[in-house]
Structure formats: C-alpha cells, structure tokens
Amino acid sequence: MVQVPDSLVWELVKSNTCFMKKMNGQTKRSGSVKFSVEKGNVKSLSMFKYSGLANSKVTDVVCTDGNGAALITKTASKAHTKPSKGMVSTNINKDFRRVENVIEKQTISNYYRPDLKAAVLGKWTKVYQANRRAKGITKPIPVKKGRNSKN
C-alpha cells in the first residue's frame, strides 16, 4: 500500500465519514457543529489537528472497563493495512501526578505530539474525575472550627 500524506487524507475525509456527527448549534458562521467520534480524536471535534484518521501520530485518553483509563497512541507500524493493530494502549491506573508524568513522557517529551499537550492533559483530568465519581471516592470536607478554638 502506498503511503499518503496526512493533508491529502484529511481532504478526502473531512466532509464525509461514518464517524461524523453533525449537531445544530450556534456558531458564528455555519450554524452547526461537527463532532467526530473516531478512535484517537482527543477533543471529538472534526478538525485536522485532532483527527484520528488523518494524522499519522495520534494520542488519546479513554475510559476502560472497571473504572480505569488507558493512553492510546498510534504506532508507526508495518501493519498499515490493518488499522486495528496500529494502536497501542497503555493502562494508566495510578495516582493523578504519576499518570500526568507518564503522559508527558510518552507524548510530549519525545516530540510525538507536543501541540496536543493541553488537550490530552485536560481529557485525563476529566477521565480521572469521572472514574473517582464512579468508584464513590469524594474529597473529604474539612471540619469548620470556631473563631477561638485551637485545634
């Protein structure tokens, strides 16, 4: 199979794909918003920057079964005719700061996709909060003390 530039793939895919969801809303120009639900799309927006189909380097954070999370990256594999084998999933079920370091090392520090740093870390925050809610873990509420009390 011949390698195709990312920009050409985007031009072919941007107007019509099975992953596209169009929602009527209020935007400045078109009046509708285009979402995309393909694997690897960090913000679920139909844009070249976030596209999991058109980009050769893709990263995403997803929820897994059992209230866990996984970091998905697209590999430069030799199996380009089998897209299902082109994704690598890394389980990230540690505490928040450790996982933040893992995400930065795997995607940003090695120049994989530094432009997606804010989007990936923002999605990790939301996935982490959702998993904590699903597990029933909440922040402890500090006890209010009176004005003159010492401890």
Automatic annotation (TrEMBL):
Pfam families on file: Ribosomal_L28e
Domain Ribosomal eL28/Mak16 residues, every copy: 8-129
GO biological process, one term: translation
First and last residue of the signal peptide: none
GO cellular component, one term: ribosome
Keywords: Ribonucleoprotein, Ribosomal protein
Superkingdom of this protein's organism: Eukaryota
Entry's Gene Ontology molecular function annotations: structural constituent of ribosome
InterPro entries in alphabetical order: Ribosomal_eL28, Ribosomal_eL28/Mak16
Family under the similarity heading: Belongs to the eukaryotic ribosomal protein eL28 family.
Name of the protein in its database record: Ribosomal eL28/Mak16 domain-containing protein
